[in-house]
Amino acid sequence: MKPIVIIGAGIAGLQAANVLHEAEIPFVLLEKQAHVGGRVQSEHFQGFILDHGFQVLQTSYPEVQQSLRLPDLDLSYFDSGAYVWKENTWHPFYSPWHDSFSILRALGDGMINIPDVVKLARLWLKIQLDSKPLSKSTMTAMEYIHSLHFSPTFQDGFLKPFFYGIFLDETLSQPASLFVFYLKQFLEGRAAIPTAGMGAISNQLLKALPEDSVHLNMEVESLQEGKVVLKNGETIACSKIILAANPTAAAYLLDIPLAKGAILQSKTFYFSADSFPNEGKLLHLVPKGEGSNILHFACLSKVNPKWAPAGKELISVTTLKTEITENEVLKELGQYVGQEKLNWKFLKAYSIPESLPKQGFWKFIKQKAHKKGIILTGDYTQYPSLQAAFASGRMAAEAAIS
Ligand SMILES: Cc1cc2nc3c(=O)[nH]c(=O)nc-3n(C[C@H](O)[C@H](O)[C@H](O)COP(=O)(O)OP(=O)(O)OC[C@H]3O[C@@H](n4cnc5c(N)ncnc54)[C@H](O)[C@@H]3O)c2cc1C
Fold this sequence. Notes:
Layout: E1 4-7, H1 11-22, E2 27-30, E3 42-45, E4 48-51, E5 57-58, H2 62-67, H3 70-73, E6 75-77, E7 81-86, E8 89-94, H4 102-109, H5 114-129, H6 141-147, H7 152-167, H8 176-188, E9 191-194, H9 199-207, E10 214-215, E11 220-224, E12 227-230, E13 235-237, E14 240-243, H10 247-253, E15 263-273, E16 283-285, E17 294-299, H11 300-303, E18 313-319, H12 326-337, E19 345-357, H13 363-372, E20 375-376, H14 386-401
Parallel strand pairs: 1-2, 1-14, 2-10, 7-16, 14-20
Antiparallel strand pairs: 3-4, 5-9, 6-9, 7-8, 11-12, 12-13, 15-18, 15-19, 16-17, 17-18
Domain Amine oxidase: 11-400
EC number: 1.-.-.-
GO molecular function, one term: oxidoreductase activity
């Protein structure tokens, strides 16, 4: 029996492979890089654990709960909320769903007002009562946020900057339905990172697979009827093809031009320091202003000291501008941490031109794949997140089996 070929060993491809393996269906998983994980990787660097771009695992994602052995990942959790910059000071703002007294503190600090609390409660109720809230809305996340009429402090100090970081997009032009979906996950679940870094997620999926089923450094160059052709000239005959490559690579293999604006980029810098001014396990949301480049920064070693060597702190700083340098980042951070205290040592930066796909750009790829009998999977086939990568990987394997 010819195997099913899976192209790409990111989360979606690894998940598809695991589902086929459980069903005892023969498959081969081909990955062009020397390692699996795609966008979910970690690196050990001078005693620090650095993820390739700041990202978190939302424990409330249904597919995450179904597909991963979470206790084996030894998760460390962020607190729910963020530091908000107001009147030249960082104020911790904790989610009222995780800490009911926090709302009083936020009211006292003037970060939120009573009408905001009422509007938030109404929004929460809407999310609870409707399984797919705003699924028919044509509004963007930005338009929807504006329609809620929150106070400028809550909207511009917390809500918008928090979602700039989730969407990796300062225009918030993704659908409003995606905004409420993510909001629900953050209200109900928790954001976590494994002790060994996000790459532990990919490694857990890999470990469950037979060794001889995963082939690294194997780049697929073209797709043909009943076979795939590798860049090294080899061909592999197959019963079906599951295309789990990232959007740009999938578009190339299907010979479809990718529209401008379909992919969002980001860059994460890592710094080490002897100390860090704030104790909370929270992101610091940098307000959007003229000349501002940074989205957020966090002291990751406050969340898990094992991500840094003893006596050191690990700080991540994320921006959407891939051309920006560590010196520009440090200069901008000076106003939020104090230039005189800012003797952070630059460790490494990860520039990720293909960080997240945007919704609404994938119709032609899907149509072409369908026409050619190729099963597509990957976050972009649903929405940008690990949940979608896991879910679409499972669906692709099930489609290949049926
Ligand atoms: C900076 C950043 C922050 C993020 N933050 C979050 C977050 O906080 N929460 C969240 O849920 N999600 C987050 N995500 C999104 C999440 O990481 C992705 O949705 C998910 O990893 C996508 O997995 P995938 O398998 O669909 O694609 P990919 O990870 O892109 O995998 C595709 C694989 O295909 C391989 N490939 C490509 N072409 C070929 C070829 N021709 N032959 C063989 N192999 C090929 C690639 O090398 C790659 O390994 C973030 C992503 C980034 C980059």
